[in-house]
């Protein structure tokens, strides 16, 4: 079977280290990891080390949707690689790679327009998806999640 992948990029006004750490701190993670309207976070367990596991219990209409995986690579502040498994992947492992590239000569300013802020290009790849439906669902979810991360960093 032909495996499929997706790629999403988002420029976020924050430095790479702060963005990277937001993926590994359960309290912060719970604030911004929102994959769409009506979806909440019931609980998050993170063991942030290579071989460490995570469990994200999302909630939708009173139903718990577990998302789990294992960290493969934690290279702060450059790259995170982990497995990702959920009902939406038919409970099969997929591979997610997130890179954080701090951009030079950014013209981004804080809300008061007084201090130049760092800007980071966050690139998310997900591999081993089975079909176009999984790509579409995950593209929507990850895009919403990166938008939420951007909004959380901006607040």
UniProtKB/TrEMBL annotation:
It holds the Pfam family AHSA1. CDD domains: SRPBCC_CalC_Aha1-like. Gene3D superfamilies: 3.30.530.20. Residues 14-151 form the Activator of Hsp90 ATPase homologue 1/2-like C-terminal domain. It comes from the Bacteria. Belongs to the AHA1 family. This is SRPBCC domain-containing protein.
